[in-house]
Task: structure prediction
Amino acid sequence: MGSEKISFRFSKDEPLIYISHLDLLRLFGRSARRACLPVALTEGFSPHLKIKLKKALKLGVASASEEGEIILSKRMPCRDIQKKWQKQLPQGIVLTELRHEV
Result:
């Protein structure tokens, strides 16, 4: 069973424009766990979820097209991932696009 890399785009708007980059990363991790997504873990003494955001936004800045990626331990259709994950994200974060990376 191999891992599956998923690239995603999201928008960040009110009321979450004042959330920091690290808190946003934690928010995506918690919401992925709550959505029961099979997120892969790093190896080592203190494993972390394999999620990363491409750029850090300044505090107070809204954005319509931010990028990130998540690595899942098993394959799932993007529409199922988006549907489950979006239900767990707070108001102000909208997943706009998910795609499998080759």
Observations:
- Strands lie at 4-12, 51-53, 63-72, 93-100.
